[in-house]
Amino acid sequence: MQTQESLEEARRVLRANDRGGFTIPTAGLYPFQWLWDAGFTALGWMRFDEPRAWAELETLFLGQWENGMLPHIVFHRPEETYFPGPERWGVTRTPPTSAITQPPVVATFVRSMLEQAQDQALAEAKARSLYPRILAYHRWFKRERDPENTGLVTVLHPWETGADNSPAWDEALARVEVDPALPPYTRRDTAHVDPSQRPRQAEYDRFLTLLEVYKRAGFDQLRLLRECPFRVASLLIDCVLHRANRDLLWLSERLGFGHEAEIAGWLKASQRGIEGLWDEEAGLYFNRDLVTGEPIRVGVSASFLPLYAGTASPERARRLLDTLEGWAQRVRYLVPSTDPHSPRFEPQRYWRGPVWAVVNYLIALGLAEYGYPEAALRIRRDTLELVQKSGFSEYFHPLTGAGLGGSSFSWTAAIYLVWSQ
Ligand code: 9WN
């Protein structure tokens, strides 16, 4: 595909996945609106339809809970092709939603949409109306997921991290005992995608067991912080939230909301929390198991995200780049979702090895900001090349470049639009 054709094709993917105010990630496999997908997709829409881009975020917030939580899936209308759907989550609200969150990219993308908008009047009005809802969401994180002000958020489900079957969660998830009374279920994902590219059955049983834990706790977050058998600190959540708070602070100042001191307090704590995840010997940041308190010593693509957060010192940024260069010796395309030196690296299984365009975008942004434009460019080129070679796939094989998972995928199309224009 030539770039011009690919650009047209990327716009076509978003239009085809548009369900009127929200964009599904891909037909069949994911027929609802997902939180962080909506953020990236809005950035893509911004390149050719600004009102539609803002609508994506407004529609997402229709799912926000009264306590501020922004759920990871909003089930705007019934669809049978995905499991678990609204019945299994058992959340009684309209529209129905899941009961967990996802990487909170929204504040950061609202800022960049406001900065790049052609229609400034529209952008300012939309940012102003979204701001209080984003603030409520970030206050929820602080109040319900970090009540002791450790600077790290407690994550209660691998789905919250966005990197569902990452090897980082193996031990923490294995500790979850499968509910003997788990209601029977039929997976739908493996009807759409080759099972060798999806999580394993043992993981799904535990993913579903956790839903029953939440329901039994009446979705009471503070109770789940004590009782949930799966509790981790995730670099994807903490780094995305840290940057989102930097951008929320910027928005507060720019729009005159006056919450700068409160947000600055959160930033101070998360700066300390994230930097506490650094491992000097490995030259990387590690996720942490909050049940054992131990670092999870497996390198994953999120290990580079303190560059995106902006918390890393210049020395640590340099070490991260060295580590990334080591990874690049092992794969053709950056950035594999798991350290290719690790015995847990599986180049075609979902978050255990494949390259994801959205994570590449976050890492490249961080590298550029730390003064490594060439490394950022390498990641950007690899991503564009993958799309040109294999289309708008959900993720890609880091050795062969083959497209994996769902196709005609919204966030891959969005990143292509953002990066090639
Ligand atoms: C569960 C929609 C989502 C992404 C996640 C990705 C995958 C869902 C699933 O798809 O997760 O949320 O059912 O596999 O892991 O990052 O947001 O694209």
UniProtKB/TrEMBL annotation:
Domain Mannosylglycerate hydrolase MGH1-like glycoside hydrolase: 30-412
Upper classification of the organism: Bacteria, Thermotogati, Deinococcota, Deinococci, Thermales
Protein name (database record): Glucosidase YgjK
Originating organism: Meiothermus luteus
Annotated keywords: Glycosidase, Hydrolase
Gene Ontology molecular function: Glc3Man9GlcNAc2 oligosaccharide glucosidase activity
UniProt gene name: ygjK
Leading EC class: hydrolase
Claim: Hydrolase is one of the keywords in the record: yes
EC number: 3.2.1.-
Family: Belongs to the glycosyl hydrolase 63 family.
Biological process according to GO: oligosaccharide metabolic process; protein N-linked glycosylation
InterPro entries for this protein: 6-hairpin_glycosidase_sf, 6hp_glycosidase-like_sf, Glycoside_hydrolase_63, MGH1-like_GH
